[in-house]
Specification:
The structure is a single chain. The chain is α/β, with parallel strands linked by helices. The chain has helices spanning about 10-15, 20-30, 70-75, 95-100, 120-125, 130-135, 140-150, 160-170, 190-195, 200-215, 225-240, 275-280, 310-320, 325, 360-370, 400-405, 425-440, 445-460, 465-485, 490, 495-505; strands spanning about 5, 35-40, 55, 60-65, 90, 175-180, 215-220, 260-265, 305-310, 330, 335, 335-345, 350-355, 375-380, 390, 415-420. The strands form four sheets. The chain has a five-stranded mixed β-sheet with strand order 2-1-3-4-5, covered by helices on one side. The protein has a five-stranded mixed β-sheet with strand order 13-12-16-14-15.
């Protein structure tokens, strides 16, 4: 009898020894004459348990973690091949509260399947959305996406259907689908997890987008710091093409769509859609003035859809199960789910896919279980390095685009970074200005020069040089950055700075 053992192959698991664990399991099984099949699946997103080893039993998959190479002998001794009890055992994977209390829609297959197996993907509902789309008109596809309420998951939250409809209605001899996979915000990793654990879901979403707007080619612009993702995507694209899901006459239909993978060069600014397009064209990654919008005049001057990974990967389930199914999740104008990523000083970091509407406190306490240090929580930054810092008094804000905007923050990409009471918020505000100065493309003066001056002004405040005068100057600089910058890079830099000033003013006082 052969026992199936699942050991993840994503970046987070590999970074803590998953390959060594898999090798040790294989070696011990051979030594003890036990027949096992080791499947390198994707991650469930429970990074606090990685490497998470699962054993398939009659009752279901039983989870053990975090497992090290040194634990293998004791696991075999405890009869873990039959779900035996061990200090690292968490019972059935599906019963782990961290997973059980989520609403997995976009990430439903992550952790379940071998990410490169087309058979696994189709067995778990893969390509059902594309099959449904192939029976619809382009207009009907766009209407379905619009009705679902799907908004861009890359940060801006712009309605996806409106963007698609603009490109669909623009006449051109060539149109493109561009996937922004340049995931550069600190504390964000949902794109990486999706691409490494369920790459065909992204491919399927891009094909559907192509059908909807009349594009026959797509580009994935991948962050250069993701080499494992690159290898997985490269193989997945090749397998999808060989199986007739990409290329000419997709599944014997009249439609053509193919995908090219491009690797960025590490510039944070290329997460901004127009800078990304400049880079794709072989130019320096620099912001374009808008209008014209990329949906009308984008890559190589052609109408282009630019969506991020999770946006495109959310499309297949919408087409497969209908707009009403997806729209039934969420609150207000924020429909469906968002993949929140817990990081920083957090006990249980990882990915949590939930419908919009739970509070920030519920996310941190119920899933993250507080700070890793056990010290009191002091601040939470949501939305990447340019997101606002929320104090404890704002943690009951619902995770919803409009609610967060009203509270002076932004959901962004869903990254949540936690800080305990040892954090220096004045230093964090300085970091935001320094980050902007380093990563600015340099095209507009407010961002390029304002951020540099901002670092200098914060330094003067924190060393006691004319604090009142420099505080007023810092506020004025923030207004200039917000109102005068060409893109969100400079326009959002004031958020962390002013939120730190508003909620933690004591951290800007000169130290004795």
């Amino acid at each position: 009898m052969t026992t199936r053992i699942y050991v993840p192959r994503d970046t987070s698991a590999l970074s803590v020894g998953a390959d060594d664990v898999a090798s040790a399991i294989a070696a011990h099984a051979k030594k003890t004459n036990v027949t096992v099949e080791i499947i390198r699946n994707g991650t469930w997103g429970m990074t606090w348990l990685e490497p998470l080893v699962e054993v398939e039993t009659d009752q279901g998959r039983v989870a053990y973690g975090p497992v090290t190479e040194d634990d293998i002998a004791s696991l075999f001794k405890a009869d873990f091949l039959n779900g035996g009890q061990h200090a690292l055992c968490h019972g059935l994977t599906s019963d782990i509260s961290y997973l059980k209390n989520q609403e997995r829609l976009t990430f439903a297959r992550c952790g379940v399947i071998d990410p490169l197996s087309l058979e696994d993907y189709e067995a778990e509902g893969g390509f059902d959305g594309l099959k449904a789309a192939l029976k619809k008109t382009p207009q009907a596809i766009v209407e379905t996406v619009t009705e679902s309420g799907l908004r861009g998951r890359g940060g801006a939250g712009f309605p996806t259907g409106i963007k698609w409809n603009t490109t669909r209605n623009t006449d051109a001899d060539q149109k493109y689908i561009v996937c922004n996979a340049d995931e550069g915000d600190s504390g964000t990793f949902s794109d990486r997890i999706l691409m490494e654990s369920d790459p065909y879901c992204l491919i399927e979403g891009m094909i559907i987008a192509g059908l909807a707007v009349g594009a026959d080619h797509g580009y994935i612009y991948l962050r250069s710091e993701y080499p494992v993702t690159k290898d997985i995507l490269t193989e997945a694209i090749a397998k999808a093409r060989a199986a007739g899901w990409l290329g000419k006459t997709i599944q014997n239909s009249a439609h053509t769509f193919d995908i090219t993978l491009r690797i960025g060069a590490g510039a944070y600014i290329c997460g901004e859609e127009t800078s990304l397009l400049e880079s794709l064209e072989g130019k320096r990654g620099q912001v374009r003035a808008k209008p014209p919008l990329p949906a009308i005049n984008g890559l190589f001057g052609k109408p282009t859809i630019v969506n991020n990974v999770v946006t495109l990967a959310s499309v297949p389930i919408i087409l497969a199960k209908g707009a009403g199914f997806y729209k039934d999740f969420g609150m207000g104008r924020s429909r469906g789910t968002l993949a929140f990523q817990l990081g920083g000083n957090i006990k249980r970091g990882g990915l949590v896919e939930k419908a919009f509407g739970l509070t920030l406190r519920e996310l941190i306490d119920d899933f993250g279980q507080g700070t890793a240090t056990g010290r009191p929580l002091r601040a939470v930054q949501v939305g990447g390095p340019l997101g606002s810092y929320f104090p404890d008094s704002l943690l009951d804000t619902p995770l919803d685009y409009e609610a967060f905007d009203d509270a002076g923050g932004m959901l962004g990409h869903g990254g949540v970074v936690v800080f305990d009471d040892s954090v220096d918020m004045g230093a964090q505000a300085r970091f935001a200005m320094a980050f902007c100065a380093i990563e600015s493309c340099g095209k507009c003066t407010p961002c390029r020069i304002g951020s540099t001056r901002g670092v200098e002004v914060i330094d003067r405040i924190r060393t006691g040089i004319n604090p009142a005068q420099n505080m007023a100057l810092l506020r004025d600089l923030c207004d200039t950055l917000r109102d005068g910058s060409l893109c969100a890079m400079g326009g959002l830099t004031p958020n962390p700075v002013e939120s730190a000033l508003d909620h933690f003013p004591e951290d800007f006082e000169a130290k004795a």
